[in-house]
Amino acid sequence: MASLFTGKVLMANREQDEVETERELGLALDNKVLLLYFASGQCQRCQSFSLLLKDFFLRLTDEFYVERASQLVLVYVSQDETEEQQREFLRRMPRRWLALPFGDSFKRELELRFAVREVPAVVVLTPSGEVLVPNAVQEIRSLGPAAFGAWREAAELLDRNFRLAEDWEERGRRSLTEPLRRLRYKLRKEPRKKKASKGEGEEEE
Hints:
By secondary structure, the protein is of the alpha/beta class.
């Protein structure tokens, strides 16, 4: 999903830090269901929904509620009239939220690309950029955090590269050269399991 923001800058930690390098974007966005939240802190409809979305997000990602944060990331696409209004709004929202910088012209491109005509709007995307839900506002209102389970299942079906958190973490612990070694030596999981069961020691490198 980082490819959507290639060459762009996102603000993290309530605009205190920039997330702009390819590696940083990858860490922040890859292998996660992405919510693009189009809203304004001054819009009355947005104000009530933002509180709901805040609770929705925290219940899926905050360690107070869950042992493992869900594979979920949110980018706020501001419709605020001033930078101070955007900053004030984000101060009241979760620290894990990312945001497009105020006044970034990419905002208009996102609005056109995802046909956003009113706010609040929550576009749900797979890690590869496929649209799961064009506007999930009503779904979040009616289902709450349970909506994420359906999105994750759909992401698994639509995105062949999408992995569950446990698989993604296991992948991260492997050597960067493992894919090359697996190709060269044609390693398979089954033979390695058999060796382990026979007590022949650790797996071959």
